[in-house]
Amino acid sequence: MENNEFSKFKLNNFLIEKLDKRRICKPTDIQDDVMPKVIKGETLIAQSKTGTGKTLSYLLPLINENLTKKMPVLIVAPTKELATQIFAEVNYYTEGTDIKPILLISGEEIEKQEAKIKTDFDIIVGVTGRILKLTEEGKLKLSLIKKLVLDEADFLVELGFLDDIENIYSLCKNLDQFLVFSATLSPKTRNLITQLQSKKHILHFEAKNSIPKNIKNYFFPIGEGERDKFLLDILKNINPYLCLVFVRTKKESLWLYHILKENSYLVECLNGDLTPSQRKKAVDKFRDAKVQYLIATDLASRGLDIEGINYIINYNLPLNEVDYLHRAGRTGRLDDKGTVYSICNDLDEGYLKKYAINLSVDLKPVKITKDGIVEYPNYKGVKPRFNIEELKKQDKIKKINKVQKERKEKFDANKKRRNKRK
Question: Which CATH superfamily is 5-196 part of?
Answer without folding.
Answer: P-loop containing nucleotide triphosphate hydrolases (3.40.50.300)
